[in-house]
Design a protein that fits this description.
- By secondary structure, this protein is of the alpha+beta class.
- It has 2 domains: 172 residues, Hypothetical Protein Ta1238, Chain: A; 125 residues, Haem-degrading domain (Beta-Lactamase), CATH 3.30.450.150.
- Helices cover 52% and strands 9% of the residues.
- The protein contains 10 helices and 6 strands.
- Strands 4-3-6-5 form a 4-stranded antiparallel sheet, sandwiched between helices. The chain has a two-stranded antiparallel ribbon with strand order 1-2.
- A hairpin with a 5-residue loop joins β3 and β4.
- The longest helix is centred in the middle third of the chain and has 42 residues.
- It is rod-shaped and about 95 Å long.
- 39% of the residues are buried.
Length: 353
C-alpha cells in the first residue's frame, strides 16, 4: 500500500495535477480545498438519507464535484488530460433537481431558520460551504483564467443543496404532522375503531349515530340508491327550512358517490359539502367533533390538500356499529346544516345499526 505521507509538501508547497507546484496557501489550492470541504459536507448530509432516487442524485452531484475539483487542481498540462469535464449538461441536471424539489416544497415564502431537524440542518451547513467554495472560485477567477462552467456549476450546486435542505424540512414537517394526527385521532377515537365513542356527537345529539325510527329495509352498505334517499330527505328538510344547500355522500372507500346542489346554493358549498362528507368518513367522527378538538389537531386542516373540514356539517354513516360512508351538507348555519343531517338520518337510517 502506498504511503499517505510523501514529505514533498513539508516546505509549504503542493503539486498540481500536471506536475507544477504551488504554495499551499495559494488561491487555487484554497479554491479546490474548499470544494473538497463542500463535497464532504454534502456527504455528511447525504448520510441522513435513505438509499433511493434522491440519494443517487446527491451521489451523482458529489462525483461531479470531484471532476470539478480535479480541473481546478490541475495546471494546463493536467487539464488537457481530463475527460468528461463539467458542462452545460451538468448545470442543467442541477437545475432539474432544484425544480423537482420546488415542485414538492412550493416556493419559499419566508426566511428559513436552519435546524428544524438533523437532516435539513446538515444540508443547510453544506449549502454554506458550497457558497464559500463559489466565493473562493471567484477570487481565483480574478487572477487566473477559469472556465465559466465551473463557477456556474458551483452556483447551481449551492442552490441545489439549499433546495435539498428545504425538501428535508418538508419531509420532517410531513412526518411531524402525521404523528400529531395519529396521536390526536387515537386520543379522540380510542384504541380501536369499534370503540363505543365512535359516531357520537359532542353535543349529545344523534348525529353520526342512527336516531330511532322505522326502517323499511336492511342496510348493509352505502350505494347510490341509499345515498339518493338520504339526499332527498336532506333537501326536503332544507326546503322546509328555507335554506339552499349542497348535499354530498362518499361511499365506503371515501370516494364521492353523490353530489346534489340546490338552486341558489353557494358555489363554494360544493367543495365544502364534499369535504365535510370525506372528513367525517376519513376520521370516523362528525366534523363538529374535529372542531372541538382543534387544539389537539393543530396543522391538520392544512393536510390532505386542504380537504379536512373542522366545523359542523359532516357525519360518518354508521350502520350496526360499522361505518359505511359519510355525508355532508353545506349552505346553512352550523345549526341548520346539523338539523338537515339529523332529519336525513332519522328518516332513512332509523334504528338500523
Amino acid at each position: 500500500m502506498p504511503a499517505i505521507y510523501t514529505r514533498t509538501g513539508d516546505k509549504g508547497d503542493t503539486g498540481l495535477f500536471g506536475g507544477s507546484r504551488v504554495p499551499k496557501q495559494s488561491l487555487r489550492v484554497e479554491a479546490y480545498g474548499t470544494i473538497d470541504e463542500a463535497n464532504a459536507a454534502i456527504g455528511a448530509a447525504k448520510a441522513w438519507m435513505e438509499r433511493g432516487e434522491w440519494w443517487d442524485r446527491i451521489q451523482h452531484m458529489q462525483l461531479r464535484l470531484f471532476v470539478l475539483a480535479a480541473e481546478v487542481a490541475s495546471d494546463e498540462k493536467g487539464r488537457a488530460t481530463i475527460g468528461d469535464k463539467i458542462s452545460g449538461t451538468d448545470i442543467a441536471d442541477l437545475e432539474h433537481l432544484i425544480d423537482d424539489c420546488l415542485a414538492i416544497t412550493g416556493p419559499q415564502r419566508a426566511f428559513v431558520v436552519p435546524g428544524r431537524d438533523h437532516r435539513s440542518a446538515a444540508f443547510h451547513q453544506a449549502r454554506t460551504v458550497v457558497r464559500r467554495a463559489e466565493r473562493e472560485m471567484l477570487r481565483l477567477a480574478e487572477v487566473e483564467e477559469l472556465r465559466p462552467e465551473l463557477i456556474k456549476y458551483l452556483n447551481r450546486c449551492s442552490d441545489a443543496v439549499y433546495s435539498l435542505a428545504r425538501l428535508a424540512e418538508h419531509w420532517h414537517d410531513e412526518q411531524h404532522i402525521r404523528e400529531l394526527v395519529v396521536a390526536a385521532v387515537e386520543k379522540i377515537l380510542g384504541k380501536t375503531p369499534d370503540d363505543s365513542s365512535l359516531g357520537k356527537a359532542t353535543d349529545g345529539s344523534r348525529l353520526g349515530k342512527a336516531p330511532s325510527g322505522p326502517v323499511p329495509t336492511r342496510i348493509d352498505s352505502l350505494d347510490l340508491a341509499l345515498a339518493q334517499r338520504l339526499c332527498d330527505a336532506a333537501l326536503a328538510k332544507a326546503d322546509e327550512m328555507g335554506v339552499a344547500v349542497v348535499f354530498a355522500a362518499v361511499d365506503g372507500s371515501g370516494a364521492l358517490l353523490l353530489l346534489n346542489r340546490q338552486p341558489d346554493s353557494l358555489l363554494a358549498s360544493i367543495d365544502v359539502a364534499m369535504n365535510k362528507a370525506w372528513s367525517a368518513f376519513a376520521f370516523k367522527r362528525p366534523t363538529a367533533d374535529l372542531k372541538k378538538h382543534a387544539d389537539d389537531l393543530k396543522g391538520l386542516e392544512s393536510t390532505n390538500s386542504g380537504r379536512v373540514i373542522m366545523f359542523p356539517g359532516g357525519v360518518p354513516l354508521t350502520v350496526r356499529g360499522r361505518i359505511i360512508g359519510g355525508i355532508g351538507v353545506s349552505g346553512g348555519s352550523d345549526e341548520e346544516d346539523l338539523a338537515i343531517l339529523e332529519h336525513a338520518l332519522s328518516t332513512v337510517i332509523g334504528d338500523n345499526r
